Amino acid sequence: MTNKVALITGVTGQDGSYLAEFLLDKGYEVHGIKRRASSFNTERVDHIYKDSHEEDVKFHLHYGDLTDTSNLTRIIQQVQPDEIYNLGAQSHVAVSFESPEYTADVDAIGTLRLLEAIRFLGLEKKTRFYQASTSELFGEVQETPQRETTPFYPRSPYAAAKMYAYWITVNYRESYGMYACNGILFNHESPRRGETFVTRKITRAIANIAQGLEKCLYLGNMDALRDWGHAKDYVRMQWMMLQQEQPEDFVIATGKQISVRDFVRMSAAEVGITLEFKGEGVDEYAVVAGIEGDNAPALSVGDVVVRVDPKYFRPAEVETLLGDPTKAKEKLGWTPEITVEEMCAEMVLNDLNKAKQHALLKKHGYDVNVVLEH
Ligand code: NDP
Ligand code: GDR
Predict the structure, then answer these.
(1) Residue 16 beta carbon below 6 angstroms from any ligand 1 atom
(2) Which Gene Ontology molecular-function terms are recorded (predicted)?
(3) Which of 45, 233, 274, 290 is the most buried (most CB within 10 A)?
(4) Rounded to the nearest 5 degrees, what angle is found at the Cα of 112, between the Cα atoms of 111 and 116?
(5) Which residue numbers in the chain have pLDDT < 70?
C-alpha cells in the first residue's frame, strides 16, 4: 500500500473511472477534476464516491476545467499531487471537426496549462506527469505497425491538438527535467465507453435492435481498421509508466486489428444473430441471415439492421491503425490480458441487460427512447 496522492483530469470519463478504481486499490489518495454541468455527470465514478462526512475518504472531486488556468493552478497547489494523469479532453475525433478551436484549447493548451502550473508552483521534482497521447497522431500511417519511432501525420483537429500536447510534454521533460511522459494509446473500449464511439454505438444498437427498441444501426466508414484493446488493461499501463526510474514514451496496443464491419458481425453474433453484408459503399447494408437463442425476439430473417449514412463520414479519415507494443512488453513487462472478442462479449452483455430492462418498461407502457443520432 502507498500513501501517494494522484490527480486525474477527465476522472468522469471512461479511462478516468477505471484509473481511479485502480489507484484507490493501490492505496492512493485520488483527486479528480469534474466539470460543472447542469445535470449529474459522475455516473462512472458514483460507485467509488463516499460522502465527505464519512471516515477515511480517499476519493475527492474538484470542480474544474482544462480551459481555466487559475482553477488548475489552485487545485494543484491544494492537492500537491505526486502524480498527475491528464486524461481530460474533447476526445471525439468527428466532433473535433465541428469544434476545432475548443478542441485545441482543451486538448493542446490544457496540457500546457497543467505543465506550466507544475513549474509555476515549483513542483517539477515532485510531481510526475502522464499525458494521454493517441494513435490518432499516426493518422495517415507512414509505417505499419506503428511504434514509438513512427513519424506522425495527424488527420483531424483532435489529432493536431494532441500532437501539440505530445511535444510540449516531451519539451518540458527535456527543458526542465520533469518526469513527464506520453502513453501513445491505441483505441480502447469497455462497457463504460461513451455511446457515440463506434464500438459502443454498435453494441448498444445491436442490443436495442434485438430487443425491438430500435430498427436499424446507421454507420459511416465500415472499412476502417482499428487495434482495439480493453480500457482496464490500458489504465494499468498508464500507472506503470509513472513508476519507472526514467520517464519514457510508450506505444500501447494489442498488435491486432479488425474492421468496423467485423466488430458489427462479432457483436451481432453475441446476441445470436448471423449477419450478411450486401451492396457496396454508401449502398452497403446488412440483413439478418440466421437467429439462434432467445436474445433477439424482435427480429426475423431478412430484416435489414445496418445501413451506411454518409453523415458519419469524416472530412479526413484514418483508415487503418495497428500498434506495435514491443517496447512496453520488453521494458515494462506489460501485455494486454483481455482480447477484443472478450471485450465485445462484455460490452454486448452489458448493453443487452439494459435493453431488456428498457423493453420490459416499454411493455408496461412506459415511454423509452433509446435512439442516438451521433
Ligand atoms: P472520455 O471522452 O470518456 O473522457 C474524457 C474526459 O475529459 C471526461 O471526464 C470529460 O468530462 C473530460 N473533459 C472534457 N472536456 C474537458 C474540459 N474542458 N475540462 C476538463 N475535463 C474535460 O475519454 P476516454 O476516457 O476514452 O479517454 C481518456 C483520454 O485518453 C482522452 O484524453 C483521450 O483523448 C485519450 N485517448 C483515448 C483513447 C481511447 O481509445 N479511449 C485512445 C487514446 C487516447 P465530462 O465527463 O464532463 O464530459
Ligand atoms: P476514433 O474512434 O476516431 O478511432 O477515436 P471512433 O470509435 O469514433 O471511430 C473509429 C472508426 O470507426 C469509424 N466509424 C464510426 N465512428 C463513429 N464514432 N460513429 C460511426 O457511426 C462510425 N462509423 C464508422 C470512424 O470513421 C473511425 O474510422 C478514438 C477516440 O477515443 C480518441 O479519443 C482516441 O484518441 C482514438 O480512439 C485512439
Answers:
(1) yes
(2) GDP-mannose 4,6-dehydratase activity
(3) 45
(4) 125
(5) 372-374
